[in-house]
Automatic annotation (TrEMBL), chain B:
Protein name: Elongation factor P
Organism: Alloalcanivorax marinus
Pathway where it operates: Protein biosynthesis; polypeptide chain elongation
UniProt-annotated location(s): Cytoplasm
Keyword Cytoplasm in annotation: yes
Modification comment: May be beta-lysylated on the epsilon-amino group of Lys-34 by the combined action of EpmA and EpmB, and then hydroxylated on the C5 position of the same residue by EpmC (if this protein is present). Lysylation is critical for the stimulatory effect of EF-P on peptide-bond formation. The lysylation moiety may extend toward the peptidyltransferase center and stabilize the terminal 3-CCA end of the tRNA. Hydroxylation of the C5 position on Lys-34 may allow additional potential stabilizing hydrogen-bond interactions with the P-tRNA.
Gene: efp
Keywords, alphabetical: Cytoplasm, Elongation factor, Hydroxylation, Protein biosynthesis
Annotated Elongation factor P C-terminal domain residues: 131-186
UniProt cross-references to PROSITE patterns, sorted A to Z: EFP (PS01275)
Top-rank lineage group of the source organism: Bacteria
Recorded GO CC terms: cytosol
N6-(3,6-diaminohexanoyl)-5-hydroxylysine found at: 34
Length: 312, 189
């Protein structure tokens, strides 16, 4: 072990910039009457999403992969608009832009549709990033960059296109779309502007409402925001229907089993809160370290996170 | 051999890919939104030295390669094989010309080398970073030149040719950096 390995990896300037960013965020929500809340990081249940794995704490439950379930329970209990700066944990997510432990700025707006929440995201981000914004629909953007319609192209055509771009063989249609989005479409975005992509494919709805596109294809009322080559935020017009939520949990678990992953018990508190009634709302989670990276031009999350995981 | 999941990938890990032992140079984690994650991996084929780029679905695994880096002593060459000995077990291994490669021009008997073994057989040989070798041939230099500008070629006992300062003479032992092939200094007796 190197003698200097006790030292932080990020510069002290980066710590100060983070403190400034947190102050700016709190002032933004304070001025808009959004209440800051704190919810547990450790809970009995965790997300069932096929591609997100929680870290188990034996004897206690799971570290939360986002504060979403707890915050929705607050919303159902009548909290009104709320935000949180929460630590989140995701197993296996480690790389230049990922750390298994990270910080989410997550907020919910009762009465906001997807567009109203996108507007609020841009009200926060445009002055911070000193950049203009562009809005795209997922389907049109994907088609423009790859030449394929992500919703109607055959799985074989999508997989071929992905393999041509370096993907492993044998991807499913949705996996090929994920691969092409991350490796072909995202790098084609103008890094200097804030890019908002709305209406994701229906299979990627997670906890978002779905709607029919012009030709009847299902799209998710979900958006993502990208800036300077980084994915910053993911938002939903939130699903309100408890039965549909229960069906999605069951489908998630089928996919987890098919992928050789352990199924997750659906969170009964979240389902009960939805049955009691979640107010119509939209919510978004923004990666705070990612935003810090975009603002400072850092290429690696280690530059804005004082202690990398192998020295934490 | 154990198999390794993408979450265990890190530089230096030795894996089997398309039947050849490879070493990971770089591992990049790519995850779009809430979708399928991928690992884009750069590997060096340890047999051919070629660099390969490959993308795996996160969660996939690859067989580990039975590759070991061992410090061994170079003993002698019989012209066809270069023989190395493990100083602890006295176990001897012959390495062919493919395995020894460019290292052969720096191999001096009794020097310690890093030998990469694959399934127990030498796959590649790294010479010590610095070797001390005798000059067997070089033209007489001009007396008084100590700055070492320009220099002249000198052939060493192993057959390697390096540039040396003009004042360095035949029969002297010099220190060479094998990574760059450059003269470092004279060894005074």
């Amino acid at each position: 072990m190197n003698d200097a390995s006790w030292r932080p990896g990020a510069a002290l300037d980066a710590l100060k910039a983070r403190a400034d960013l947190l102050r700016t965020v709190r002032a933004f929500f304070d001025a808009r009457g959004v209440l800051e809340v704190s919810t547990p990081s450790l809970a009995a249940h965790a997300v069932s999403d096929e591609h997100i794995d929680a870290i188990e704490v034996p004897g206690h439950g799971w570290l939360q992969t986002s504060p979403e379930y707890h915050m929705k329970r607050l919303l159902a209990a009548g909290s009104g608009p709320i935000y949180q700066i929460a630590r989140a944990f995701r197993d296996g997510e480690a790389g230049a832009r990922h750390n298994p432990e990270f910080t989410l700025l997550e907020w919910y707006r009762p009465g906001f549709d997807l567009e109203a929440l996108v507007d609020e995201c841009l009200a926060l981000l445009t002055p911070l990033c000193a950049a203009g914004a562009e809005r795209h629909r997922f389907r049109a953007l994907f088609r423009e960059v790859t030449g394929l319609d992500p919703l109607t192209a055959t799985a074989a055509a999508l997989a071929d296109r992905a393999t041509g771009a370096g993907a492993p063989a044998g991807l499913s249609g949705p996996q090929a779309v994920d691969y092409l989005m991350a490796t072909v479409v995202e790098p084609a975005l103008d890094p200097a502007v804030i890019t908002v992509v709305v209406d994701f494919p229906g299979w990627a709805a997670a906890l978002a409402q779905t709607a029919g596109d012009d030709d009847g294809a299902t799209v998710a009322r979900r958006f993502e925001i990208y800036h300077r080559g980084l994915e910053l935020a993911n938002g939903y017009q939130e699903l309100l229907d408890a039965d549909e939520q229960a069906r999605r949990f069951a489908r998630d678990n089928e996919k987890r089993l098919a992928a050789g992953k352990r199924p997750m018990t659906p969170d009964p508190y979240l389902l009960d809160a939805l049955r009691a009634g979640l107010p119509p709302c939209s919510g978004v989670a923004l990666g705070l370290e990612r935003l810090h990276m975009a603002l400072s031009g850092a290429g690696r999350i280690d530059q804005v996170w004082p202690f990398p995981r192998d020295r934490a | 051999m154990a198999s390794y999941s993408t979450s265990e990938f890190k530089s230096g890990l030795k894996l089997m890919l398309d039947g050849d032992p490879c070493s990971i140079i770089e591992n990049e984690f790519v995850k779009p939104g809430k979708g399928q994650a991928f690992n884009r991996v750069k590997l060096r084929n340890l047999k051919t030295g070629k660099v390969i780029e490959r993308t795996f679905k996160s969660g996939d695994s690859l067989e580990g390669a039975d590759v070991l880096d061992v410090t061994m002593q170079y003993i002698y060459s019989d012209g066809e094989f270069w023989h190395f000995m493990d100083p602890n077990t006295f176990d001897q291994k012959p390495a062919g010309a493919d395995a020894v490669g460019d290292a052969k021009q720096w191999l001096k008997e009794e020097d310690m080398c890093e030998v990469t073994l694959y399934n127990g057989e030498p796959l590649s040989v790294s010479p010590p970073n610095f070797v001390e070798l005798e000059i067997t041939q070089t033209d007489p230099g001009v007396k008084g030149d100590t700055a070492g500008t320009g220099g002249k070629p000198a052939t060493l006992s192993t057959g390697a040719v390096v540039r040396v300062p003009l004042f360095v003479q035949e029969g002297e032992v010099i220190k060479v950096d094998t990574r760059t092939g450059e003269y470092v200094g004279r060894i005074k007796n």
